[in-house]
């Protein structure tokens, strides 16, 4: 099959690799029908995630069709269309039993495209399939559903829930790429008083306004002053960092009010300064987190009911073989206006499913 392979910082290629196969009775092999690129993938290529070693197939978000299952898999069978979660769960360790699947110690957590081969390929092996894939109702489009693999549960759990957004709150989202835009969409479930979006790209600020942001500011044009003006000098109740650079994180800590919450969502590859000389007296709560995806079933129900603005987040579509072109467009988002790119499209092969026992 073809797959996008990481060869070290700044080096990837779309190339032939061996087909995946069942390695454990809990595995499923899935044909990839729709896949997307995450900002985390860009961090990996930059060298910010050293656990990803050369030779790894990238990607952790996809929708596909099950072609083979191990003997222990019960929730899906060959031929089923499924959402592949960015998080795998063994279901047995302490953290999985507590619903903290991202911290799985039984071989799960964020493994796809990280410590095992990922989804930016024609086929992918998914471990712990019973708990790591979700059957999709026919009413949900594959290109919409792929946004539930990562960005919607991440923004909702790590941003909105960790930030404890409440009715009437002033919420600031710093960085309105796909994660930040999904945070704006899901924050509105809690009726905040206002949402302020901050970014360097005018196209992303325009998208933020379309999704419900009440005010926007360029990151290089005194957004802290705007927050101060709109809150009578108090500061924001909740500030979410969705960039992953020190300057953005430090800006967030300056925007938050006494007693407020800073929810860090971004993937950081460099140290950021925590100004405790200013924050120690402010009763500020700072949270970090890797998504657990416990909210995925609920978000899937909302999507099936038409309650999530998924389609507007996908700005570019490519066929699977155009992976390198898709990366180029996504990595130059300020120039191309890309939000989320999706790959899939027409296929010319024949799907063969393998029935257990035959």
UniProtKB/TrEMBL annotation:
It comes from Streptomyces virginiae (Streptomyces cinnamonensis). This is Zinc-dependent alcohol dehydrogenase family protein. SUPFAM superfamilies: GroES-like, NAD(P)-binding Rossmann-fold domains. It comes from the Bacteria. Belongs to the zinc-containing alcohol dehydrogenase family. Residues 8-343 form the Enoyl reductase (ER) domain. It holds the Pfam family ADH_zinc_N. The lineage of its organism: Bacteria, Bacillati, Actinomycetota, Actinomycetes, Kitasatosporales. Keywords: Metal-binding, Oxidoreductase, Zinc. Its cofactor is Zn(2+). The keyword NAD does not apply. InterPro entries: ADH-like_C, ADH-like_N, ADH_Zn_CS, ER, GroES-like_sf, NAD(P)-bd_dom_sf.
């Amino acid at each position: 099959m073809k797959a996008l392979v990481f060869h070290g910082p700044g080096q990837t290629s779309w190339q032939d690799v061996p087909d995946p196969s069942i390695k454990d009775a809990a595995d499923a092999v899935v044909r990839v029908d729709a896949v997307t690129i995450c900002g985390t993938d860009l961090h990996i290529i930059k060298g910010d995630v050293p656990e990803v070693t050369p030779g790894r197939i990238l990607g952790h978000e996809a929708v596909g069709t099950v072609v083979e299952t191990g003997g222990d898999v019960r929730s899906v069978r060959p031929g089923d269309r499924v959402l592949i979660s960015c998080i795998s769960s063994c279901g047995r360790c302490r953290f999985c039993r507590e619903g903290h699947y991202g911290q799985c110690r039984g071989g799960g957590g964020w493994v796809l495209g990280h410590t095992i081969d990922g989804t930016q390929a024609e086929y992918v092996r998914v471990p712990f399939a019973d708990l790591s894939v979700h059957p999709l109702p026919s009413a949900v489009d594959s290109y919409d559903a792929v946004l539930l693999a990562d960005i919607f549960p991440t923004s909702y759990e790590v941003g909105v829930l960790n930030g404890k957004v409440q009715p009437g709150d002033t919420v600031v989202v710093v960085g309105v790429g796909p994660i930040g835009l999904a945070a704006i969409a899901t924050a509105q479930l809690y009726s905040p008083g206002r949402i302020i979006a901050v970014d360097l790209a005018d196209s992303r600020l325009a998208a933020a306004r379309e999704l419900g942001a009440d005010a926007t500011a360029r990151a290089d044009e005194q957004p802290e002053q705007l927050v101060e003006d709109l809150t009578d000098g108090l500061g924001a109740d909740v500030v979410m960092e969705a960039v992953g650079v020190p300057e953005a994180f430090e800006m967030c800590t300056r925007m938050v009010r006494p007693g407020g919450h800073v929810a860090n969502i971004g993937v950081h590859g460099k140290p950021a300064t925590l100004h405790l000389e200013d924050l120690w007296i402010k009763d500020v709560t700072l949270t970090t987190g890797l998504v657990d995806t416990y909210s995925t079933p609920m978000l899937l129900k909302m999507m099936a009911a038409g309650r999530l603005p998924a389609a507007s987040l996908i700005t570019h579509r490519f066929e699977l073989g155009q992976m390198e072109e898709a990366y180029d467009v996504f990595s130059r988002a300020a120039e191309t206006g890309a939000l989320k790119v999706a790959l899939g499209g027409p296929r010319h092969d024949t799907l063969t499913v393998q029935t257990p026992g035959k």
